[in-house]
């Protein structure tokens, strides 16, 4: 069950909305057409302002509520909202919406018009998420498979008809059964040679990176993940991408350590332990206008410690963020350029299915 909100907008000749009389004429035409679809339509409230244009609230049986606004700049917006219980058919069909748009467009002689299918609000299953640059994305999620809160974050497994099971952490897309391209791009499969190498993974609680790296016959991989519940959840619901590595936790080839990766990096530094590869599969680059705050401090701490456990010819690999986040990616690269000893980096890109956008990945070595 959810509230259904259908959005329409129409661009009109400015002369048709320039003054009160013209706007009221547009409102009259609109109401006449709406009454064809909603025969018992009543006006609940209207307001006219020279500065802000015309605004009205209408309803049918106090069930379906319609808000209309006519701006003096030549824009008309129309919102239709009603509540849809589970198991009930929508009050307004796709064909009806399309027909309504076309009729109103013709009546207003509109240059352009647009309607959006119902936005579903307040349901138990949240099908809306955002891209890295904060565009709204609607997913074909049909089931909440698992939901719990660990001491560190909210953990959800959602099922998507096209993406399969998908891991969300604090309600943000993390990885789905469809996202092998994410892991392969992060590890630069086919470019990097991991055979016989010693590797450290920071984070990676979904197990996908570890699972794929083990196929490359490394000497040993140690994975440092703080959230036990994430691993238990992915082992049960995402074993398509992680196999049984989160079940076994340890073999001759790998070891999973549950704990704070920063503390273990400090331990490795004290022991003089070095790696051929360090993977930062942790926090995304923050969407901020300056490299300030707790998350940026954490990123700098990870940099500082990771390069101290990297062999001279070693490589640090990590994900960045969506490739449209130009400012934030530049801030991240500026932090890399501040590192001492100096480092150099290359980047790769991949369209990640469950993110529904292109992401940037970094490969960093000592300069």
Short structural description:
The chain is an alpha+beta fold and 367 residues long. It folds into three domains: 1-119, Double Stranded RNA Binding Domain; 126-173, Spermidine Synthase, Chain: A, domain 2 (Roll); 176-364, Rossmann fold.
Q: Determine the strand fraction and express it as a percent band.
A: 35-45%
Q: Give the mean pLDDT.
A: 95
Strands, count: 19
Q: Mind summarizing the main beta sheet? A: 7 strands, mixed
Total domain units: 3
Query: In which range does the helix fraction lie?
Result: 25-40%
Strand order of the largest sheet: 15-14-13-16-17-19-18
C-alpha-based Rg, rounded: 27 Å
Distance between the termini: 57 Å
Task: Give the oligomeric state of the chains in this entry, treating copies of one chain as homo and distinct chains as hetero.
Answer: single chain
- Sum up the overall morphology in one term: elongated
The CATH superfamily name of the largest domain is Vaccinia Virus protein VP39
Give me the secondary-structure category. alpha+beta
Low-pLDDT stretches: none
Q: How many individual helices? A: 10
- Using the coordinates above, name the CATH class of the largest domain: Alpha Beta
Pfam family, one: Spermine_synth
GO molecular function: spermine synthase activity
Keywords: Polyamine biosynthesis, Transferase
Enzyme class: transferase
Tell me about this structure.
The chain has 367 residues and is an alpha+beta fold. The protein folds into three domains: 1-119, Double Stranded RNA Binding Domain (2-Layer Sandwich); 126-173, Spermidine synthase, tetramerisation domain (Spermidine Synthase, Chain: A, domain 2, Roll); 176-364, Vaccinia Virus protein VP39 (Rossmann fold, 3-Layer(aba) Sandwich). 28% of the residues lie in helices and 40% in strands. It is built from ten helices and 19 strands. The chain has helices at residues 20-37, 94-108, 180-186, 208-214, 228-237, 239-242, 245-248, 261-271, 294-306, 326-337; strands at 2-11, 41-49, 53-60, 64-71, 75-84, 112-121, 128-130, 136-138, 141-149, 154-160, 164-169, 172-176, 198-203, 220-225, 254-258, 275-281, 310-322, 343-352, 357-366. The protein has a seven-stranded mixed beta sheet with strand order 15-14-13-16-17-19-18, sandwiched between helices. A six-stranded antiparallel beta sheet has the order 2-3-4-5-1-6, with helices on one face. A four-stranded antiparallel beta sheet has the order 9-10-11-12, covered by helices on one side. Strand 10 (154-160) and strand 11 form a beta hairpin. The termini are far apart.
């Amino acid at each position: 069950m959810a509230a259904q909100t259908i959005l329409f907008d129409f661009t009109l000749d400015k002369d048709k909305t320039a003054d009160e009389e013209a706007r009221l004429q547009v409102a009259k035409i609109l109401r006449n057409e709406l009454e064809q679809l909603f025969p018992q339509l009543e006006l609940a409230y209207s307001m006219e302002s020279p500065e802000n244009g015309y605004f009205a609230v209408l309803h049918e049986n106090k069930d379906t509520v319609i808000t209309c606004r006519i701006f003096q700049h030549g824009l008309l917006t129309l919102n239709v909202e009603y509540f849809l219980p589970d198991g009930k058919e929508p009050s307004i069909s796709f064909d009806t919406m399309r027909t309504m748009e076309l009729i109103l467009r013709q009546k207003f002689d509109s240059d352009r018009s647009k309607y959006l299918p119902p936005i579903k609000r307040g349901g138990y299953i949240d099908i809306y998420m955002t891209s890295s640059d904060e565009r709204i994305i609607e997913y074909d999620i049909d089931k909440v498979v698992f939901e719990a809160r660990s001491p560190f974050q909210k953990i959800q497994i959602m099922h998507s008809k096209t993406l399969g099971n998908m891991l969300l952490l604090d309600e943000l897309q993390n990885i789905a059964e469809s996202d092998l391209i994410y892991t392969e791009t992060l590890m630069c499969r086919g470019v990097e040679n991991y055979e016989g190498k010693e590797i450290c993974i920071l984070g990676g609680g979904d197990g996908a990176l570890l699972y794929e790296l083990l196929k490359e016959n490394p000497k040993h991989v140690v994975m440092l993940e703080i959230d036990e519940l994430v691993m238990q959840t992915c082992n049960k619901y995402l074993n398509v991408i992680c196999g049984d590595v989160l079940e076994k936790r340890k073999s001759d080839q790998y070891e999973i350590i549950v704990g704070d990766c920063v503390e273990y990096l400090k331990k490795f530094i004290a022991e003089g332990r070095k790696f051929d590869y360090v993977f930062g599969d942790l926090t995304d680059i923050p969407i901020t206008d300056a490299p300030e705050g707790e998350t940026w401090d954490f990123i700098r701490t990870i940099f500082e410690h990771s390069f101290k456990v990297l062999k001279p010819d070693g490589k640090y690999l990590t994900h960045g963020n969506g490739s449209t986040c130009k400012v934030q990616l530049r801030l991240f690269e500026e932090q890399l350029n501040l590192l001492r000893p100096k480092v150099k980096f290359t980047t790769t890109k991949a369209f990640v299915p469950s993110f529904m956008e292109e992401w940037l990945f970094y490969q960093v070595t000592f300069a």
